[in-house]
Structure formats: C-alpha cells, structure tokens
Amino acid sequence: MILRANDQIVHKAAWLYYTHNLRQDEVARRLNISRASVATYLRKARETGIVSIAASTQLFSDDILARRLEDALGLDAVWVVTEDRQALDPATEIPVVAASAFLELVQSGSRIGVAWGRTVYHIADVMSYADVQDATVLQLCGNLGAPYNYRPDQCTMEIARRLNAQGINLYAPLILSSESLAADIRSEPVIAEQLAAISACDLALYSVGSVDKDSHIVRCGALTADELAALGEEGATGVIGGQLIDADGQLMDCAYNRRLISADLDAVRAIPRRIMVVAEDSKFDALAAAIRGGFVSHLVVTASMARRLLDLWDTQSQTTP
Amino acid sequence: MILRANDQIVHKAAWLYYTHNLRQDEVARRLNISRASVATYLRKARETGIVSIAASTQLFSDDILARRLEDALGLDAVWVVTEDRQALDPATEIPVVAASAFLELVQSGSRIGVAWGRTVYHIADVMSYADVQDATVLQLCGNLGAPYNYRPDQCTMEIARRLNAQGINLYAPLILSSESLAADIRSEPVIAEQLAAISACDLALYSVGSVDKDSHIVRCGALTADELAALGEEGATGVIGGQLIDADGQLMDCAYNRRLISADLDAVRAIPRRIMVVAEDSKFDALAAAIRGGFVSHLVVTASMARRLLDLWDTQSQTTP
DNA sequence: ATGGTGATTTGACAAATGTCAGAGCAATCG
DNA sequence: CGATTGCTCTGACATTTGTCAAATCACCAT
C-alpha cells in the first residue's frame, strides 16, 4: 500500500527532524509549511509510531537479583522492578517495563502470540506505538462470550494496533458447554489452521492466572469460584491461556480443560521467546508452576517476587542435589 | 555486568523522561539534581543508545518503484532513494537510509555479518547508537595488511560500537601470496571456526564491488588495475566480500579467489536476511550479478538504479519467457 | 591540613518547541 | 450558488529545553 500524500508529509518531516537532526524551522522551510505545522506533524509521527522513541530497560535487567534469577531458573532474561524506585508505584511500573522489554524483542516480520488478562491489557495500554508493519499478532486462546473488560480479542487487537501490525483473532469461544462440541470446533478447518499457526510464532506475551476466587477465569464466568476451588484441590495451580496447569506446569487432565479452545501448550512451549509478566505477588505459586512447565524464557516481576522465586529454587536445589 | 552507579542515573533520567513523559524539571526533582544535569544526561543517553530514536523508513520503501522491484526481482524489501527529495543529496542519503533500515532489522540476539568498503563504512558512520547488547557483529572477510581507510575490521568494530554489541574480527589477511598458504590458514582452527560461524548469522550487511579501475580491491592493493581488467575479460563482474563473482553471481574459478580468506559464498547466501546497499550507479552490472547470485534479500538503491534494474529484468523475462 | 586538578553540577540566559485561537480552504449539502 | 462543515494551517505567545561560564565537589599528592 502506497502512502497517502497526507501521511507522506508527516514521514518527511519526521525523517528530516529525527534522522537528519534539522530544527523544526529548517524542516518547515524545506517543506514549505509553517513551523507550527511541523510541530504538529512531529507529534503525530510520535503518536502513530512513525517515529519510535525507546529508553533502554537495562535499568531493570542489570541488577544483581535479575542476574541471579536468570542463573538459578535458567531464564534468558529477567527484568526486576524494584519497589523503591523514586516514588514510582511498582504495580503500574510492571506493565510499562514489560511493554518496553516486549518492544525490544519485537522486530519486523515477527509472529507474536498474545494471551489475555488484566496484566496483558495494561501492557497493551501503556505500550508506545511502533512501526512493524509486517508483524502479525495472534490470539492464543478463544474468546469470552460475556462482556468482560480484558477480552482476548481486545488484547490482541490493541497490541496489533500499537505495532501497526496485523492482528488475527480466533473466532471461537474460549469455553464451550460440552467436550464434544469443543472437539468439533477445534477440528473446524478455520480454527484448526489458526491453532496450528501458533507453533510458528517466535514471540509470546502473557501472564499466568492464579487459582483462587480472584482468578480471571472466575471473574469472566468460565468457572464458578467453587468449581475452581475444587479443581485447586485436585492440584490445579495456574492458568495459561485459559488452561489449568498443575504445580509442575503440566496440563491438568480435567473436563474443564477439554471444553476449551486454546493454544496447544506444547506449541506454546515451543515458541522461542516467551515473555511472562506478573504484576501481583499473589500469583507466586502459579508463576512457579509456569516456570517449571517451561512457559517462561523472559520474565518481568517485582523485586519481592524475584526474591521469593530465588528462595524457592534455592530450597528446591538443596532438597534435590 | 552491573551498571556503574554513574550510568545508573543516566538510565533513570532517560526512563523517567522518555518512558514516563515527565518534563526535565520533574525528572530533576525526582532525582534531586538540577534540570541542567538532566538535560546533559538525556543528551548522553541519546548519544550512547540508552535512548534510541528511529524514524520510519517507509518513506523510501512505500514507493511504486520499490514495490515493482520487489515483485520483479523477488526481493523481501527494497528502499528507493529518490533524487528529488527536498535538496537532500541521494549519495549521502543512501547510507542514512541503509543505516535506518539496518537498525529496523537488527534485534536483541542478532548475529550480524559485515563486509567492507566505502559504502559500509559510511553506513557505520551515520548509524545512530542503539542498545542491543547481546548482538554479535562478525567480520565476513580477512583484513587488509596495508593501511586503508575502510578496512574490514574497522567496519565491523564501528558497527559493533554503535550497537553496543560484541564485535568479532577475523584475524587473517584478506589476500595471501600463495594458494597453499591461504588453504593452510583457512584450516587453522581459530580461523576455520570463525568462518564456520558465519553460517549462523541471521543478518548480513554489505555492498557489492565493481570490476573496474576504481574497484576497492584495486584501491586497497589486493590486485592491480591490469590484473583485475584481465579477470574482467574472463567474466568477473562483481566483488562480494573480496571475492570475484561472474555475471550469474557464481564464484569465479581463478587463482585470485583461491588466495583469499573470506566467507564461503554459500554460507553468505544462506543468511536469511542479506541487506545490499549500493550508492554508486556505476556498480550496476555488479549489482545485477549479486542479485542473480542470490546475495540480496533487502536492497537499498537510488531511483535511477532501481529503474535500470527493472528495465533489465523486464527484458530478461521477455527473452526467456 | 592544603592546594591543585579534573570532572561534575548549577544558575541564568538564549534558543527551540508546544499550543491554541482564529484564519483559510476544500468538499459537501440544501 | 452560497452556506455549512470539517479539516488543516498559521501567527503569536507560553513553556520547555539546550548551553555555557562559573561554582562546587571529590580526589589526590604534597
């Protein structure tokens, strides 16, 4: 698609200003427009991702705690958000760091799998706009029927919009009333094709869900709190793309899981870079399960969570030397 | 490596200013320093790649000519630098566009092969600093013994410096006096290992050399103008990483080529993304040979060169329907 | 202690940038 | 055909940012 003449001037202004370091009045003279227009165009260029400005996330990854976590848990990269950072609330900072870290890993041509949840939605919300037109953003799990604030398709589409990339939604419900219907839908060519495409992703972005009454699968109505509690008794420890996993990160063998339309967990594990973002400390057990299950290669967590993980792995390695 | 406390404040200032969009005076208050210091730190952050600012190169790739070239020659992406762009000299613009396009393709963890020449050096020179610490920049061919302005190791190291990445030089001469010595050196473990590592690259950046008296292999003293002219008679059409190729882009079977220490051309062809940058229109034949030989997936050229290539491919496809 | 040295930080000013009300202009509609 | 609507563009002003000489600080050798 050729640039509209209208956008062309925004690109030109951005190129001259940011790449050639001309001043706004020089750009204005070159393009025969007023300097005020140049300023407007440049803002538009920043807001739409024609110009991308990214600050390094080293501040969060170059940290003793982060290094120790990488080594102990065998992760590729860890970002630790420290509580005491100049009055910035870690809860709001986690999605910001995650968005920056994510953007550092995205590149032209990437295929990105995205799950859903409050955390993922917040990440999308604070993500700055970028220009990766030939990237593709895939939805990792089916949709919720009920209106819910952080729907899978919303997360996927919002991230695609921020990247100026193509978003591909999975047009199937997350949960169906019967196992057989779920199986039928899963084998529908359109759906099967899309689920298969997930294994071609090179990047995944998700959080893990907890197994308690605040879990998003309860909030969105997929399960009642009592049903989830019962599954918790049976060993359910976390939620990945809607699916329940046990403490070792293996798919639970239960009717609920069989009623879902979601990414095959082995396909998810096969994605080379899996960014896990956890904002709430209450998700500790779920996160540990996700790490054991091989769902994490890149991790964004709070310092307190990092310390707890480190302690857990230390005791683990002592008991199983 | 943990950040020095000194750099830490630069990172913090950059993070607050660019990611959180605070004003300089707000950043100053948060960090308990003067606003002037904040301004200084921010400049430092921009100059060192802690903050990267990139304008989209769409202006050059979203162009009818570029699209037609992609289709006709089967290339992944083409950037065309149009002559009439607001008094910007295309000769200086080519390296700028190439540097931006290159940076859009680089990502954390990339392994990048770099050849040498005036064009590549100019690209390195105008390239803005970036923060891709875990990238690796490899030298694709041996070094010149004689002092020369655009040495392979300089190109490699300068690009590595700009990216804050690791640069790996090939500590061998480009050309040796005898074929047997070249063979011996090639099989030295240290060198053999490095040459083998080239096939693991995921990105290559180079230009093609012409076969005439201005060729860089003549200028750097690897061959005399007469010797090169004689090889030209035998069919030599272009130069890739010091090696002579014929009009079809195949390695010339000649003593000169056997005396070289350089990347195996099949390994180069196997690199998934090969960015070819040609600034001079006189390199037309050499470029056509390089394209035929499969050395190009991404191309940066002038509009006039693009038109000539398009014409050539049109006549080719007419004669061989 | 003390003076020197180089690097860092600051205050004050100059320069550049952001903003917004109103002008201008093109397309659309009655 | 003129009025209306919805744009973009501009000029003028307010705000923000860049710069640099001078001050301060940290460190070191005497």
Overall description:
The structure is a homodimer of 321-residue chains. Chain A has 321 residues and is of the alpha/beta class. Chain A contains 16 helices and eleven strands. In chain A, strands 2-11-10-6-3-4-5 form a seven-stranded parallel β-sheet, with helices on both faces. A three-stranded antiparallel β-sheet of chain A has the order 7-8-9, with helices on one face. In chain A, strand 4, helix 8 and strand 5 (166-168) form a beta-alpha-beta unit. In chain A, helix 1 crosses helix 3 (35-48). The longest helix of chain A has 17 residues, at 303-319. The radius of gyration of chain A is 22 Å and the shape is globular. The A-B interface holds A 1-3, 8, 11-12, 14-20, 30-31, 45, 49-56, 58-59, 62-64, 67, 85-88, 96, 100, 104-108, 131, 133 and B 1-3, 8, 11-12, 14-20, 30-31, 45, 49-56, 58-59, 62-64, 67, 85-88, 96, 100, 104-108, 131, 133. The first copy, chain A, binds a DNA duplex (30 and 30 nucleotides) through residues 23-25, 33-40, 42-43.
